[in-house]
Design a protein that fits this description.
The chain is α/β, with parallel strands linked by helices and 398 residues long. It has two domains: 180 residues, Flavin prenyltransferase-like (Rossmann fold); 209 residues, 3-Layer(aba) Sandwich (Rossmann fold), CATH 3.40.50.10300. The chain has 13 helices and 20 strands. It has an eight-stranded mixed β-sheet with strand order 13-12-9-14-17-18-19-20, with helices on both faces. It has a six-stranded parallel β-sheet with strand order 3-2-1-4-5-6, with helices on both faces. α3 crosses α5. The two termini are 17 Å apart. Bound molecules: flavin mononucleotide. Flavin mononucleotide (FMN) binds next to α4.
Length: 398
């Protein structure tokens, strides 16, 4: 799959640089062509000799290489490759790229590139979480750069937290997926719609009913679908989450607004309804704040967006996926919901367990289609999203 793919690997000056040697080995094993650029600081951590031996190519280190002056490495390298992988990328290089500086071969080559840039950050947890670093990395993600990790764990400095470089195997898997799925999916020009988050149903100008959904699972699914090259629109209820990169986001508050925006987003090939749409809304909205002693609430059913999508025959998406958040008899109730709503798959999750589901980083789900039930054990919502996105893609590329 990676045969003859051309990768530029930039190795920055981080203590995790040694992991990139293993990555070169993994890529070469798949007959991938690898050219390595080493930053000045990178040289303090890994030697050009070991890189040259593993990559079977010269190591590029100097933007002003007197012997190569005529070739202008920063342009020729960026045109030669399919992707540029910066692993590990330091806080310093992240800041440089975010500000568009070009004072060494690595930064100049990225600025001059028209290829996909993939970053693999690695640094101490405080460096990673520092506001300036977070602003910089978000800026790069907004440029359309992709990022692998960092993961959470014990660091070389002895501290614990987020900032650890992803393993060579994780990076390798990411690149493999990037080339395989992305190309196939992109050619199909698929469009997806994801709904996420809760909705708010106002009683008066300041009071509303809602639920505890954070929107995290839906945001992660939109993110995964977009990473696979699917043109993705995310219709989100109130949520504090960051907009996923390369996703078109539409923010709404009420179920009625979510329904209207869903209708506008059609036609799409795929619809994934993760939103915890509030089932009921007040029969009457009071334009002025309701007084304590006059409260008298009555509710009516909200429109069912999942059912609308599944039964909307003229513009029915080719695949409609619903979520069933249940607290008991999870599989039984989810199957009933699937039949009642006419969706193609239903994804059941247990929201009674505070360690998974609503407002947690983790989830555990079962995907129910017409033939089987596929369980995805407890894992990060990003992992679950990737699994779901992959299953969706498999459905379209078979
Ligand atoms: C022992 C040591 C380990 C370091 N590890 C990291 C690291 O893991 N991540 C990081 O962002 N910076 C790290 N630094 C700091 C960078 O090496 C420094 O910011 C350097 O300027 C980065 O250069 P570059 O971005 O051009 O590679 C480390 C420095 C030292 C001395």
């Amino acid at each position: 799959m990676l045969k003859n793919k051309k990768v530029i690997l930039i190795i920055g000056g981080g203590v995790a640089a040694y992991k990139s040697l293993d990555l070169i080995r993994l890529l070469k094993k798949q007959e991938c062509e690898v050219k390595v650029v080493l930053t000045e600081s990178g040289k303090k951590f890994v030697t050009p000799l070991s890189i040259a031996s593993l990559s079977q190519n010269k190591v590029y280190q100097d933007i002003f290489d007197i012997e190569k002056e005529a070739e202008m490495d920063h342009i020729s390298l960026s045109r030669w490759c399919d992707i540029i992988l910066f692993a590990p990328i330091t806080a310093n290089s992240i800041a440089k790229l975010a500000s568009g500086r070009a004072d060494d071969l690595a930064s100049t080559l990225i600025l001059a590139s028209n290829k996909q840039i993939i970053l693999v950050p690695a640094m101490n947890v405080r460096m990673w979480l520092h506001k300036s670093n977070q602003n910089n990395i978000n800026k790069l993600l907004d440029f359309g750069y992709l990022s692998i990790g960092p993961s959470t764990g014990e660091m070389a400095c002895g501290e614990y937290g987020e900032g650890k470089m992803s393993s060579p195997e994780q990076i390798y898997e990411f690149i493999k997926d990037y080339f395989s799925d992305r190309n196939i999916v992109k050619n199909k020009k698929l469009k997806a719609l994801v709904t996420a988050g809760p909705t708010k149903e106002y009683l008066d100008p300041i009071r509303f009913i809602t639920n505890n959904s954070s929107g995290k699972q839906g945001y992660e699914i939109a993110n995964s679908l977009a990473k696979f090259g699917i043109n993705t629109t995310l219709i989100s209820g109130p949520s504090t989450l960051k907009k996923p990169v390369n996703v078109n986001i539409i923010k709404v508050e009420t179920a009625d607004q979510m329904y209207m925006e869903t209708k506008k987003a059609l036609p799409v090939d795929i619809a994934v309804c993760t939103a915890a749409v509030t089932d009921f809304k007040p029969t009457k909205y009071e334009a002025k704040k309701i007084k304590k002693n006059t409260i008298n609430l009555n509710f009516k059913r909200n429109i069912d967006i999942l059912e609308f999508l599944s039964k909307n025959n003229s513009q029915r998406p080719r695949l409609v996926v619903g979520f069933a958040a249940e607290t008991n008899d999870i599989l039984k109730l989810a199957k009933e919901k699937k039949n009642k709503k006419y969706c193609d798959w239903i994804i059941a999750n247990d929201v009674s367990n505070p360690e998974i589901g609503f407002n947690s980083e983790y989830n555990e789900v079962s995907i129910i289609d017409d033939k089987k039930v596929e369980k995805i054990e407890k894992n990060l919502k990003s992992y679950i999203a990737n699994k779901i996105a992959r299953k969706i893609i498999n459905n379209f590329i078979q």
